[in-house]
TrEMBL record:
Taxonomic placement: Bacteria, Bacillati, Actinomycetota, Actinomycetes, Kitasatosporales
Species this chain originates from: Streptomyces griseorubens
Membrane topology type: Peripheral membrane protein
Pfam families: ABC_tran (PF00005)
Protein name: Methionine ABC transporter ATP-binding protein
Domain of life from the UniProt record: Bacteria
Region described as Disordered: spans on this chain: 1-21
Compartments, record wording: Cell membrane
Amino acid sequence: MADGTQVVQERGELSGRMGTTEGSEGAFIEVDGVEKVFDVRRRKGLLRRERHQVRAVDSISFTVARGEMVGYIGPNGAGKSTTIKMLTGILTPSGGRLRVAGIDPSRERTRLAHRIGVVFGQRTTLWWDLPLIDSYKLMHRMYRIPDARYRENLARLVELLDLGDLLEVPVRQLSLGQRMRGDIAAALLHDPEVLYLDEPTIGLDVVSKTRVREFLRQVNAERATTVLLTTHDLQDIEQVCSRVMVIDHGRLVYDGALAGLHEVGEGERTLVVDLEREFPPVEVPAPARVVRVDGPRQWVAFPASEPAAGLVTRIAERYPLVDLSVREPDIEAVIAQMYAERAGRAPTQSS
């Protein structure tokens, strides 16, 4: 890949030639009061069907600056994928305003396609029965990538994602992790300015997840690529993103740092401690508490907003420690707790 500064300069020149501009305050992605409503027909009785409206996205607004890496998270059915599909032009918003690099995705989908890359974790953009390299050759022609840049990008992506031994393998014979790495490479061959990743680590093993996360950090550092990542794995967010947005029931309920999300949702992390032998519950300072003991292994819950270092040091000083790990709270549990707290603080209306 070319030097990051050179690439950014080239992209700026390209934007000027294409007549596109970013937002007035430098926002690369602008979402203003966007909503998406689907009409669903449900059977009611033997011969009758009733039309019902489902509001998948409900008046959300946010901006993303060029080069930002943002996590976009929420429970299943919250509206994450619907948002991504509107940002790419696959779906047309029912209301509101949406711009990516000054382009309306639904009106100029083909024009925008040259500036974005998309990876849907459960769907592939690769040709199923062809060797992996043939998919890349087809994309070379589809995106009209200059030959020198295509060869340079391909070599770099193959190296970073460890695809060298897979190029001649039909896509249908690749494992999930191998195919996912192949999809990410395909999404970046044409030097997109923004990369949308919808569950890119779903079903991957630990090694594959680590490789994908390291790669995304490197691409962002070298190319200033804007990344919008949807995931259920909080470690993806922690290791890749500097900012997180939470959507639930189509509404944006949080936008800020991950630490702030834990504080708002009052989530808990779990320290899993393996001792040399069986002990009674370890003594830990409140609000930390032992929630489970199984032989030499103990589970200690503590507030997600608190660092684990002090707790680990205290246990290591008093007990023969063999191993430990920290488990992050489940995102759905964090959001559920967040809403419970919000409901509890809401003022009651007099009858």
